[in-house]
Amino acid sequence: MRALKSLSVATAATLALLLCAPMPASAQANCDWYAKTAVRQQQINASKQCGLTGLSWHTDLAAHRKWCQGVPPDAWKAEAQKRSQQLQACEQKKG
């Protein structure tokens, strides 16, 4: 149960950062943040055995960064938010 609360806090914090905190000014910094967040979300997915799969669920940092660099900010923000919501749903099922 404590692990699930920890996941809840981590997921909520990620989402809060995504939606509320100002992003770094440069596109490179934005995509670095996105890629690191995507990898961390996949690590949570694996550690909590959520079983989430698809094109955005992997730990290839360079691939996440490259994808981010090719899309507008709204797209990578939405993708990070979508993964966060899927992790929250996993949490609720297991809780």
DSSP strand (E) fraction?
under 5%
Count of DSSP-assigned helices: 4
* Average residue pLDDT: 84
Helix content: over 70%
CA radius of gyration: 13 Å
Taken in chain order, the helices and strands follow as HHHH
Features:
4 helices, elongated, mainly alpha, 95 residues
In short:
This protein has helices at residues 2-20, 27-47, 61-69, 73-94. The protein has 95 residues and is an all-alpha fold.
Describe it for me?
This protein is mostly helical and 95 residues long. The protein is built from 4 helices and no strands. The N and C termini lie close together (7 Å).
Secondary structure: elements and pairs:
Blueprint: H1 2-20, H2 27-47, H3 61-69, H4 73-94
